[in-house]
Amino acid sequence: xxxxNNVRSTNxxxxxxxxxxxxxxxxxxxxxxxxxxxxxxxxxxxxxxxxDPAGYVEFGSISDPAASSGRTLGTFAGVFCPxxxxxxxxxxxxxxxxxxxxAGLYVTLLQFIIAYVILLFTVSSVCxxxxxxxxxxxxxxxxxxxxxxxxxxxxxxxxFFLANVVGCGLAISGCAEGIIQNFxxxxxxxxxxxxxxRWWRFLYCSSINTLMxxxxxxxxxxxxxxxxLILGVVVVCLLSTYISFLTQGPMDVNIxxxxxxxxxxxAKYTGLQxxxxxxxxxxxxxxxxxxxxxxxxxxxxxxxxxxxxxxxMAGANMSGELKxxxxxxxxxxxxxVLFTFLCYMALSVLIAATTTSTLLQNNFLFxxxxxxxxxxxxxxxxxxxxxxGLSNLIGASRVMEALAKDRxxxxxxNFVVKGTYKxxxxxxxxxxxxxxxxxxxxxxxxxxxxxxxVLFMLAYxxxxxxxxxxxxxxxxxxxxxxxxxxWHTAFIGLLGTxxxxxxxxxxxxxxxxxxxxxxxxALHLFSPASQGAQWGSISQALMFHQVRKYLLMLDSRxxxxxxxxxxxxxxxSSPRSCCPLIHFVNDMKKGGLYxxxxxxxxxxxxxxxSHDPTIEEYTQWLSLVDHMKVxxxxxLTLSRNVREGIQHxxxxxxxxxxKPNTTILGFYDEEQSxxxxxxxxxxxxxxxxxxxxxxxxPYRKSGETxxxxxxxxxxxxxxxxxxxxxxxxCRHFHRLDKQMIARNNHIRYIDVWPVNIFEPKNxxxxxxxxxxxxxxxxxxxxxxxxxxxxLRVFLCESETVSENSAAFERPxxxxxxxxxxxxxxxxxxxxxxxxxxxxxxxxxxxxxKQFTGTSDSNQVMVEENINRSKLYMQRINQIIRxxxxxxxxxFMYLPTPPATPSVDYKEKCHHYLDLLTELTFDxxxxxxxxxxxxxxxxxL
Length: 940
Known about the structure:
alpha/beta, ten-stranded mixed β-sheet, two-stranded antiparallel sheet
């Protein structure tokens, strides 16, 4: 149970004290959004610039994605087509009429503007991130995880994966609805090419989903070729719709047989008429016949509308297959956004000017009957929804593959990595297909649309948050080549998505945010810690930004004693031998600064090619802090000797007004050190610092001599006090066992002895040193494990020169009690009757002063006085030991060391340390304390 507090210095570990605590040891913004859509003539280049054969530059190295397996897609095929098709989705032919008929033209145009503003600013964030470095597979997930870090990246990536799954289900439901409308029963009869019903629809959706699975399994390149063909078909079908609006005259259109909310069978299509446009300008919300008659409102309409335009990430999802992602993603996405926006605005105006609200509200598929070529609408519905479903299914599988490769969920998704064939994640595609099947069980397209919108908005919110955060931090390496981005665009996108999430459906929005936070917590606890270091986390950049700002605001000239808190510098030689003290100081810091300092003895040689040894050791000390689970910083220094190194640490530790005000040293004695990393019953046992036969943090073994002398140690004490730092010398902390204190009721006290044993006086026992001692004891007594212990203050008075000594005793105790009450310190006062009876303090006072800084520096020591002082200390030690059978920690008064220069200074240093050794012999864990300034206040 013993471990030495001796301080030593070796080549490997300069200072070895005992178990206790060995000593020693700029914005890229400015460009507005008005330039977002300029220069589209060069948007569709599908290859890297001629002077950049690599295609893109990766941090630290140059890679060639074009030459990589699977990277074959250009801007038009890989980004524009998937984005345009995904943004048309089921909305363009199936739900624009529903939106105009319920919300009216004014609100519809407003909603499209709101949606596209959110999308535009989100696209700006995507473009900024994607042009700031190499973009790999995983699209948006890759961008967010490499910016926000593994916790937020993994959680948002998971929700984005789910959003793609729901989006695929939405597209399939729209495709099935179009099939039923054209080939199912009509006019309320059972006649038709195919039967209708809830489970029949689920069968059709499953068949479409399976067909998509087959196409996706063939590979992304096949999808790209398919998407270009489908986009051409959709554009032709959309043009036929525009032509029909301009040429078709009035007609009656049948109401679908599944609409049971009305008792009529037809509704009017008027063709282009001013009266029709006027009637459709304002909102007229009714019930939705496809979702059991649920009431329609602004939120429902916007949820359906936004679900149709969530495809802006479709190009980013294909980042693993793009030749030049950093160029293709911005160009293709922005052009597709502009193209679809113009198409939707024109379609909304034409619908409002030609179709009555009755028809719009009761037949969502009215475009077929009024078209000059009805088959074109059918083809358009099937191709647009089918291509959107393909895009979402591929996007979901790519995000799932990226999550698995990053081991965000550990070995849980290893099957995805193993199930990859020729760069196509077969297992991820099949898993996504299974989840889409579960979404299809919901049935109602409008209900799926709201869930889809909320999930996509959360992903967009995270994207804007990532871009806003990295822009605010002013990170020098954030230099995107996309220049039409500022923090304003990211903030507007962030605010817009956050608000509209709750407008669409507050329950879905709140549920998705809670799910996201739960995933963040789970990933923080269980995901590999190394990922944050490999990817970088924006949280570190944000914390740096804020901490620097507040450190500059923290002014030491405005410090007030009322808000004083301990700022600890613990000087450690080998942490192996002082684990309990490291933990104890962590408790004593009371939310203040805690720095673990270590001096490595050596010289920085100019012609030495090796690195500074403290650089290599720093990470080991950080690992130690993690192992000890203490909230501490680490400061290492290289110096020619320990004393000089400690002076460096005292001066340079901390920053600004956050600098240590208290220095803690281990005691200098002959006790043998103990290795708490090897001791079987030690709570600190670990093999983490034993590798390849080398033990990190070596300590002084039995028989080894100390390299730090007594005189140097005492001079270090004197240095600390002269540098105006509070000082604590800690002894016997190898005996401290917090677990035993928590379990054992025998240990009941924290003791304070506020008397200078070297110079006892009949004065107020609460001088500056005693107040500091009481403050530390009170802080310890506030903590959970230590709170069960009673704080005891021992009143030790010497015989007074006054003739009326008995009359003086009572006021001293009264003054101490009053002071404790004023300082709000709950402690019991214990008088020591042996103090006056057994010891002649007046006789020893002048003798003991010879060994402290208060003595005459030219006074010569006498051997007889030295022996008397040792006997005196032994008797004091016996009194304290008799009172310490149930004590956990003892705080004692540390006198100042001998003054320098003085006669026989070296001998005085030896005797000073010998007397402290006798005083603290065989006591519980003991702290010798010397305070410099007042640390307590009795005022409000």
